[in-house]
């Protein structure tokens, strides 16, 4: 949400309200897509573009959460291990 601010000249401008909120359902969709992409093409051929396409999101949604393919996979492995989630 943007808030209006008044400048010294009395004109109004918009100020950012803060960082984007990362939706958990989008994060879950991306994680599920990683499992599917790994099974389909393997780590070497897996791409952020392919993951995003499979998850139904833009690449930006992936990069907001992870800086690289390796970071994404390492985070996913840690999440699965911590929650005791079975891999699909």
Descriptive keywords:
mainly alpha
CATH topology of the domain at 23-83: Arc Repressor Mutant, subunit A
Shape: elongated
* Main pleated sheet: 2 strands, antiparallel
Number of strands: 2
Poorly predicted runs: none
Beta-strand residue percentage: 5-15%
- How much helix, percentage-wise, in residues? 55-70%
Radius of gyration: 18 Å
**How do the helices and strands follow one another from N- to C-terminus?**
EEHHHH
Task: Please state the structural category.
Answer: mainly alpha
Distance between the termini: 38 Å
Oligomer: single chain
CATH superfamily (homologous) name of the domain at 23-83: Homeodomain-like
Architecture blueprint of SSEs:
Elements (H helix, E strand, L loop, with lengths): L2 E4 L5 E4 L8 H22 L2 H8 L3 H7 L3 H15 L5
Antiparallel strand pairs: 1-2
Helix pairs in contact: 1-2, 2-3
Summarize it.
This protein has 88 residues and is mainly alpha-helical.
Tell me what the structure shows.
This protein has 88 residues and is mainly alpha-helical. The protein has a domain at 23-83: Homeodomain-like (Arc Repressor Mutant, subunit A, Orthogonal Bundle), CATH 1.10.10. 59% of the residues lie in helices and 9% in strands. It contains four helices and two strands; from the N terminus they run ββαααα. It has helices at residues 24-45, 48-55, 59-65, 69-83; strands at residues 3-6, 12-15. A two-stranded antiparallel sheet has the order 1-2. A hairpin with a 5-residue loop joins strand 1 (3-6) and strand 2 (12-15). Helix 1 (24-45) crosses helix 2 (48-55) and helix 2 (48-55) packs across helix 3.
